[in-house]
Amino acid sequence: MKTTPPSKPHRRTGRFLTSIQMLTAGVLIAGFSAAPARAQDGWVSLFNGKNLDGWAEHSGKAKYTVEDGVLTGEAVAGTGNSFLCTKQRYGNFELELEYKCDPLLNSGVMFRSEVYPGSTTTVIGGKTYKFPPDRIHGYQCEIDMDAARGRMWTAGIYDEARRGWLLPPDGEKGPQGMAFSEQGRTVSKNGKWNQLRIVADGASIKTWLNGVARSEITDTVTPDGVIGLQVHGIGNDAKKAGLKVSFRNIRIHELPPTPAAAPNTLTEQEKADGWKLLWDGKTTTGWRSPKSENFPAKSWHMADGVLTVDSGLSDATAESSAGGDIISEDVYSNFELTADFKTSYGCNSGIKIFVQPNISPIDKVTGQPTGKGSAIGMEFQILDDQHHPDAKLGRNGDRTIGSLYDLIPAAKDKKVMPIGDWSHARIVSQGQHVEFWLNGKMTLECERDSAAFRDAVEKSKFKNIPDFGEWANGHVLLQEHGSPVSFQNVKLRELPAN
What we know:
The chain is mainly beta and 498 residues long. Helix content is 5%, strand content 37%.
């Protein structure tokens, strides 16, 4: 079972869950309001009732199976907390599901949660948290049905592997915890199907159990992330091996995104987590041409917090032939990079990592070194798939938006925004592992030193470049490809090596 970190007692006002107001661990717990109106449409099933498509296992080794439209997690001795997680990230949403849990087995529903292939460190409220590889961490809607223990905290909110209990905050014997458990005892249905509802909208997080309001907090530590179904670790207790928690009717309705903060700025939490702006929103500071120490004299302009590469050629087919690409002055190895970008009709551009400006560009037809073209690196492709010819070239769509250009195609179910709308790119590089994300959904992942990656290089136009993509570090690049594309909110934080 989860343990409760020590916390100071808090003064209660009014009735529990109707007029509590307190401040604890940076979390404001406010009076509960009426449930928001349910959406009439826009709901999407996260579980197809047949298999685990769209889900991935992380952290532990619990068994997850599907039968008759029910997804079941089974406890396994000798492993830690296990999580079956969506491959897509979600920020603002309504989430509903039904569960049935053995009272001796602890469980929960993760949301806005993070997981990285390598060791990761973050800072929250001045405290440093370290996570081993593949360890899920983030918000969890608790599932706790152990009436015999005297604690019924289902639909409480726990910060998995980080701050501990957010609601209730004062432990099992505190007045908040006891009152919360008493309410849970009256609304829980032991041995039967129960319904959970979670609404995350900006900083507001609310939960319901079987239609009864349970938790409401305001917290801004993690604005988006994956959703996960937990099977809590049982240690080496063989008697608990085989205990099960089951889920069904898992569906989500995404809500409008939270109004963005001023572009090209960092929140206090981002600063604490080690983020920095790669582009300051105003100047050329930190950027230069791959061919010189200077910023290009043409093709790029900055206005109203937006960095735009202009249309340099009418056919938009030549790489870096007008003002040219721009690269970061610094080089990076282990990092998380995010950027917003806006496409135009028929456009072609990209975000490259591990860029090596000392290697000659490659002719896209012959594959031979050439004096003209884009600097060499691993490219997150930015393209108008509908109107640019590159989308039909390459192999299996590996030149479409969100792909690792000319190497690995983006997932077919990628989320593409309309032309003229802002899109969000996220690139994670840690050790040899690389992930590309487009608008909150992973488009691909790879290991840079794997046989599969090297085989893809051998079939690409980069086959004659020794050790392509396996360099220890490199620059970040924004590509000029003769067509208008805009960027803002270009941010990066360095990660520890695996």
